[in-house]
Specification:
This protein has 114 residues and is an alpha+beta fold. The chain has one domain: 2-Layer Sandwich (Beta Polymerase, domain 2). 37% of the residues lie in helices and 25% in strands. It contains four helices and six strands, in the order H-E-E-H-E-E-E-H-H-E. A six-stranded mixed beta sheet has the order 3-4-5-2-1-6. A hairpin with a 6-residue loop joins strand 3 and strand 4. Helix 1 packs antiparallel against helix 2. The chain is globular, with a radius of gyration of 13 Å.
Length: 114
């Protein structure tokens, strides 16, 4: 059986390892019917967002978990990795500010990852 908390820790570690910035974990389970968590991070360039996405996908692949859907990877401005129970959003700064998911999903609860 999957351990969601351990999967989320693995995502967090993968993002930190590649110097992802402003990493946020939002519990949106009370207001969302399609996922329980958003992991949101910023990369300084499209090359870095792709490296962050690669790191997350590789780390989770080692855990036997594969993204059900990936969007935006070729352009690298906003990469979405859908793992059903959680969705990873990796932005360049301008796109993160424009879409402002934290504000859009302000009913979500920020979760600390230890």
């Amino acid at each position: 059986m999957r351990n969601l908390e351990e999967d989320l820790k693995a995502v967090w570690q993968a993002l930190e390892e590649k110097k992802g910035e402003e990493v946020v974990l939002l519990d949106i389970s009370a207001t969302s019917s399609f996922t329980d968590y958003f992991v949101i991070a910023t990369g300084r360039s499209t090359r870095q967002t792709q490296a962050l996405a690669d790191s997350v996908m590789e780390r989770l692949k080692q855990r036997g978990l594969f993204a059900g859907h990936v969007e935006g990877y070729p352009r690298g401005e906003w990469i979405l990795l859908d793992y059903l129970s959680f969705v990873v959003h990796i932005f360049v700064p301008s796109h993160r500010g424009f879409y402002n998911l934290e504000k859009l999903w302000n009913d979500g609860k920020r979760v600390r990852v230890s």
